[in-house]
């Protein structure tokens, strides 16, 4: 029996239910197209039985489409290494053995709750997003008649594990001392540049001389995490770092070091300095927070950091209470004069 319903998006979904078999479903922009498809498909089911791709759906497991997704889709992404690792982990979970016709919201909710016992909520959110996109690709691009994306419908856990790690003054001195023990000033320059620009590690490593405008004190970032290129202003200290590197390195990449090389160097610095629980990405937190403390407005900080949603800056901005207290005292004194 065919049914037509209007979705919240304004599109029309046609579904055909056949007892004992998975639901056939397609979505259309125009209602008449949905009605036409339903009539033709219902007639074909009555005369010829279920389409071949529906029968294949009964045998296809989540693990199998994850394997194909990791082979065809993940390699095209910037974070492919992390995503492929995440896929391997999920494929070891019992949920990967479920066929796409047997996946229900209850099965997904059980997977979510079991994973929450061993990983953080933010990890679960990433895994559910990956699984949702995987099922969506299988439905839209690979021709599997999946009636509903159960991963998109299940409730996501609240994420309250955002990091607020910043360097103390003593830790910054220890890090500077560890940098001075290195044979070159490369790591010291990268760290200072990271704090001054609040750029991500990948953006820093991919920075090229052709993207720098010393006259206007700007740096263009053509490839970003959110896919939106941006041009950021450079502080005097950031410009000084770039001019120093220009006298040392004439290669097309500004810092001339690989992600692996930086990872090894960062590990050495943490061991030498004795600093615990501090990641390179935390320098971005440090940079954004410093910009706020210097008096830049949220829109101005977003211009530097690349945040499109100002509310997301709350995850990175962690003001030091003593600095705010000092600012309040200064404002109070100024108002009394």
Automatic annotation (TrEMBL):
Q: One GO BP annotation here?
A: DNA integration
Pfam families on file: Phage_integrase
Domain Tyr recombinase, by residue range, is 162-329
CDD domains assigned to the protein according to its UniProt record, in alphabetical order: INT_Rci_Hp1_C
Q: Name one GO molecular function term.
A: DNA binding
Keyword annotations from UniProtKB, A to Z: DNA integration, DNA recombination
Under which name does UniProt file this protein?
Answer: Site-specific integrase
């Amino acid at each position: 029996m065919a049914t037509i319903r209007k979705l919240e998006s304004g599109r029309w979904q046609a579904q055909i239910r056949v007892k004992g078999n998975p639901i056939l479903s397609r979505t259309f922009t125009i209602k008449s197209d949905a009605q036409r498809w339903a009539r033709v498909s219902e007639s074909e089911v009555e005369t010829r039985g279920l389409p071949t791709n529906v029968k294949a759906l009964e045998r296809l497991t989540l693990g199998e489409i994850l394997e194909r997704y990791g082979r065809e889709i993940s390699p095209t992404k910037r974070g492919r290494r992390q995503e492929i690792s995440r896929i391997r982990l999920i494929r070891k979970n019992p949920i990967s053995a479920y066929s796409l016709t047997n996946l229900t919201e209850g099965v997904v909710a059980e997977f979510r709750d079991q994973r929450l016992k061993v990983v953080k909520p933010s990890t679960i959110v990433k895994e559910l997003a990956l699984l949702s996109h995987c099922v969506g690709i299988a439905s839209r691009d690979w021709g599997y008649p999946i009636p509903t994306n159960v991963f998109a419908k299940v409730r996501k856990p609240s994420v309250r594990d955002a990091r607020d790690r910043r360097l103390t003054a003593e830790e910054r001195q220890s890090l500077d001392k560890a940098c001075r023990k290195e044979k070159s000033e490369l790591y010291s320059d990268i760290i200072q540049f990271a704090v001054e620009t609040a750029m991500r590690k990948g953006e820093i490593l991919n920075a090229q001389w052709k993207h720098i405008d010393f006259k206007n004190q700007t740096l263009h970032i053509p490839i970003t995490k959110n896919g939106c290129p941006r041009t950021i202003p450079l502080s005097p200290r950031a410009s000084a770092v770039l001019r120093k590197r220009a006298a040392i390195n004439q290669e097309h990449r500004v810092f001339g070091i690989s992600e692996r090389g930086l990872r090894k160097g960062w590990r050495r610095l943490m061991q030498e300095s004795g600093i615990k629980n501090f990641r390179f990405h935390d320098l971005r937190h440090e940079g954004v927070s410093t910009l706020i403390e210097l008096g830049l407005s949220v829109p101005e900080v977003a211009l530097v950091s690349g945040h499109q949603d100002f509310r997301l800056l709350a995850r990175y901005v962690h003001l030091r209470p003593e600095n705010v207290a000092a600012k309040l005292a200064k404002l109070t004194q100024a108002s009394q004069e």
